Amino acid sequence: MRYFIVAICMLLALPLGAVQPDEVLDDPVLEQRARDLSKGLRCLVCQNESIDESDASLARDLRILLRERLVQGDTDEQAISFIVDRYGEYVLLRPTVTGSNWLLWAAGPLMLLMAGGVGFAYLRGRDKASEQTIEALSDVEKSRLAELLNDD
Predict the structure, then answer these.
(1) Is residue 49 part of a domain?
(2) Domain that holds residue 82
(3) What's the whole-model pTM score?
(4) Is 69 within 8 Å of 85 (Cβ atoms)?
(5) Could you give the number of structural domains in the chain?
(6) Which of 22, 92, 127, 129 is 20 to 30 Å from 42 by CA-CA measure?
């Protein structure tokens, strides 16, 4: 019985889509296309959630708009392009690597290479640094140290 309860809790923890029953299209193929496309569009309110998962009213409006475009006969690319033209490229969960976005895509690897170069230069410089030699105590210093230690 305990395993049954754990299984039910795990099933309840699964992420559920936020698509309302009145949004679902009659054509299952068209509905599947809409679901697939909506998983790649960002909710502008939740920001890191797709419109397929978001309960925000703006996400619902985007889902309905997407379905309307598909019903009108748009291809996937045309429907996405229409939404991007209207809301900007920010609406895409995976922005394209064109225009000024290439700098954002390249920034991470470039910073990693720069950090690796700085680390390499530091280690090379540290290896070339001369070791400091420690001079032995003179006879006068040894006798003074012995006096200090024997004063107890």
Answers:
(1) yes
(2) 18-91
(3) 0.56
(4) no
(5) 1
(6) 22
